[in-house]
Design a protein that fits this description.
By secondary structure, the chain is α/β, with parallel strands linked by helices. Helices cover 34% and strands 21% of the residues.
């Protein structure tokens, strides 16, 4: 077992894995155990009482974190003419139309989010097999297909985090960095949990928010009291 493995094992032994904490207390514990040599990402994992194979139990959305994500997000935009200029001015990393589609078909994937104006979706649709499996396909539900291209780019750059439930009913996302202060992390966690709670689908039956835990990239998970988090 290497140094990292030993450190995680030691950290896990100091944390009661069955104990539930308030968001503030959980953030304090996670920050104390984020001891890696890089700025670890603070991650939230939520178990939901849904079966996303049913369309009416799908959970997806976007939340603007009040203190940003701490990530540098590279944004690709499909737009033409005035809208393309808007996107460039707003800080998009790459802007194009058919030329960008061909570039992506050729293997270019140096971006974290794809945004498109509605009139470009016929072009973007041809990239479904490339973008779809990576969760990068623009979608109006999460604000990535929109005529307001400048706002979408700025939101993406400023800490907008998309979420989508996986087949197993789990959602996870990065909501900050270990270098953030406790208050900033806690506010981001609360904003994320609130957004997922509000995205409860019509077909969800029984308990919707089952489990919530937070961790840092290399640290152990700390469980959060669901009733307190969603109050």
């Amino acid at each position: 077992m290497g140094k990292i493995g030993k450190r995680i094992k030691a950290a896990r032994e100091t944390i009661n894995r069955d104990e539930f904490h308030s968001i503030d207390a959980a953030v304090k514990i996670v920050k104390e155990h984020a001891k890696a040599k890089f700025d670890e990402t603070i991650e939230v994992a939520m178990n939901l009482g849904v079966d996303p194979r049913h369309a009416d139990q799908m959970v997806r959305g976007v939340v603007s974190l009040p203190n940003g994500s701490g990530r540098t997000v590279r944004v690709a935009v499909f737009a033409k003419d005035a809208k393309a200029e808007e996107a460039t001015k707003a800080g998009a990393d790459i802007v194009g139309a058919e030329d960008l589609m061909e570039k992506i078909q050729g293997g270019f994937m140096d971006f974290d989010r794809v945004i498109a104006t509605p009139d470009m979706m016929a072009v973007v649709g041809r990239l479904g097999k490339v973008l779809g499996p990576r969760g990068l396909m623009p979608n109006p539900k999460v604000g990535t297909v929109t005529p307001d291209i400048a706002k979408a780019v700025k939101d993406s750059k400023g800490g907008a985090v998309e979420f989508r439930v996986e087949k197993s009913g789990i959602i996870h996302a990065g909501v900050g960095k270990a270098s953030f202060d406790e208050k900033a992390i806690a506010e981001n966690v609360k904003a994320f949990v609130d957004a997922v709670a509000k995205a409860k689908p019509a077909g969800a039956k029984g308990t919707y928010l089952k489990k919530i835990a937070i961790s840092s990239t290399m640290g152990p998970g700390v469980r959060i009291d669901v009733s307190a988090a969603s109050a």
